[in-house]
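Input for the complex:
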Amino acid sequence: MSQKVLIIDDDPAVSNFIKYRLSKKSYQVKHVDNGIEGLDAIRDFEPDLVILDMMMPGVDGREVAEQVREHGLIDPNRIIVLSGKKMTDEIKALFDIGIHDYIQKPFSIDLLLLRIERALASLKSR
Amino acid sequence: MIDLLEHYAVAIMAILLGVVLAMFLVLIFFAILNRLWHNRGISRKREASESIQPLIYSYLDGSINRSDFAARLKNKHDITATWESIEIMIDNLSGEERKKLQMLLDLPPIKKHFLRKLNSRKPISLAQACVYFSKKTLTDKSIAVRLSVLQEHSYNVIAYAATLALVNTTNQGFRDMALLRFLLRKNNASMAVSDIIFKYYDISDDKEVAAEKLEFFVMNPDIPDKTRAAVIRMFPELGFYQTADTLRDLLQINVKNDPTGELTAALLGVLIDFSDQKLREIVEKHRLWESPSREVRLKVPGVYADIYGEETTRILLGLAHDPELEVRMAAQRQLLKHRPLISESRFEPDISTEWRAMKKSGDADVSNG
Amino acid sequence: MFLTGNFLLGITVLVIFYFFALNLLYIILVVISYRSIRKFRDVDSIFNMTGVYSTNLYKPVSIIAPAYNEEQSIIASVNALLNIRYANFEVIVVNDGSSDKTLQELIDYFRLKPDNRYRPAFLDHKPIRQIYSSPRYPALVVVDKENGRKADALNAGINMASKELICAVDADSILEPDVIVKMLRVFMEDEKTVAVGGVVRMANGCTYKHRMIDQIRLPKSWLGRVQAVEYLRSFLFGRVGWDSLDALMVISGAFGVFDRNAVIRAGGYLHDTVGEDMELVVRLHKYHRQNNLPYRIRFIFEPVCWTEVPEDYKTLSRQRNRWHRGLADTLYRHRDMLFRPAYGRVGTIAMPYFLIGELLAPLVELSGFFIVALSWWLGAINISFALLFLSFSIVLGMILSLSAVLLEEMTSKRYERATDILILALYAFLENIGYRQLHAWWRIRGLVDFLRGKRDWGVMVRKGIKT
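Predicted:
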């Protein structure tokens, strides 16, 4: 069975691109453009990995990660955070929550795919 | 007589009513038409971007090439949609994809579209063109000349956008010229200056040369003091510790004839940030705590952050009674920090009235600031 | 008989003159607003483009949100504030002595810890009980103080604020996600800016999605729709027009960005007025003019925040009563600025307008009815003239309202459906039947209350915003 990746990002041009490339690698991909739907999708779609954008209007990445931990939706270690700004404090707080990794924008798509693959592999082997 | 007057008044009123009624009908017709037209434009734009995005992805994949892509661009909506998607993607992606996207921007129909805008007179078109040219690598001399003309535009924002486009090029000559022209302008907002400086430095290949140039610019008296102050305030952010000597010299030269105190205050702030050891000497030589500029006096307590002693206490106590509240606050905050080292009798009880202690346990770490 | 006739004629001519002068001013404001929006709409979209001003070098902002008995909505509100798209900001929530669990909710959700710190005392306010911060939310500070109304809470927040700019918000209104960036570009354009306001729009009837306004719709109720027309008119050509005349007198208390030092120097918010938002703006004008300091007070025509307005008569009448008392109070306090060229267009145009065109307007309207009734009784009325004049004034009012709708079309957030225009036009007509008179009555009551020295707020019942 193919592994499931959830993308939570409000920017359609970029997240559609990630989705497009991931689908080509035969992952099952779902994309939502905001935090609230993101939390619903984490519950219903049960992704193996979440790509989470920090900067979103309404409910942002920080709040999503917190809710995930608060309610034990999935292991926070299944979250990779994407962020455009160098927000050291925020990133530290996210690692405290227990996220898997953090990737700064602008990013190379190949590198992102590689990290996703590695993350999924390491999560599986455990 | 009265009857006649009334008659006229009624007639005039009737005519006026007719006029406004007609106006109202025209307006409402226009409003509805305008809205329908607007809504149609929005939906066409959405359609265009939905059809263009997959094309961009296939192009990045290599499934289609540039000319295939160009052939698919049918109308203005397609061009705008392409530009809007690419613009966001360029900001978010690095490496191979970014280069390929920049190549896509060079497609003749897109380039032509923005060249037309660059020569338009509408501010919005000009700015769009500037942003477009700032995203691709610019090599064309005539475009650079046109952009440098726009640096003198009466809208600050267009001057800014044009500068940004030139600073973003790979041609070092264009970049330096653009930066100097921008800094020489009279009415730059300091945030715009910081932003340009940051971007100029960020994409400079040779950081050392870039730093030297900026150091050279702040010595240039033709550049307005306000702009120079804004450039100087960027130095700690950029980590220019090597500039401390230059800045100290500049402070020495300027301290005597700086009517607004803006430049002096900026220099003090930066040198404090650099923990410059010789700063205290200059401050005391020129008795800067007596400066007429509020901004300068406001910086003085920071100089004594880690210097204790009789002289420090005397200066800070003086500033603690400054007519300007903010200066008093800064001095008092520093005094509170030094408190354990000052004999209680010298520590006048009234100086802490403007700092209300939340809790006595907070004495040791005076935060907030 | 002859004397009364002349007397009546005199008053009639005066009222008609008043009417024409006021409407002339409105038409001028519409034209000015149109030109200014057309010019600055372009600038606006330039700033909206990515790539422009995208680094972290904006001025830092302290967002100050006073909260009083908001246990239901406080967590959602604060989370929304923390999610604002901006690089360098802090959120200061001031719990203004709530009698419910507002503070406890905050402590529990954000894991607040008491924070030992010295705090400055630039402005006076009721004593602070405790300051809280949270290691997990570095941008959040909560101040718990004794109850002292909104102005008092804002002053405490301003003291606490550590950033260059402050932004006063109502905790229960919905902010546009990029609102701070929108406001900041005004400060970037012109460094002399000390205050910026923006368009406050009605949230009633709109649909929400993820704590944000999703679709912009008209409310269903009659009072709601009449107010929709009113809000568009007052924000889109009122304030934009005053802004281009450099004579803006009001920045809504629901959202405004100020230069912190300027506010502190001018003396902060006033405790004993019900119109503290308007009063502060007028005082900023006064302070800078008196001290010959260069300054700008600006208004941007983009929507910045959405607020739920009262849709029942009782609450609305209290609100309008309070607004009118606030207006009277501000004009009275600063009566020395009236007609003084030393205060620029604020003194020569804006204040006289607010005095004659707003404060006294309900009295003029009332006397208009009185004249009509008296003339009727005396048989001295020309029925056809009266009817024509009435229709003329109504149609003119509708044209003004419709131009506000057209101006709104030029901003980014609009009512989407074409039928909404017809509904708005209809209500621009219907507002003349009943609402106008009622509104005048509420305002007269406000004026009377002001003269009697009534200063309190009256109870404000909010329906609350669903998130």
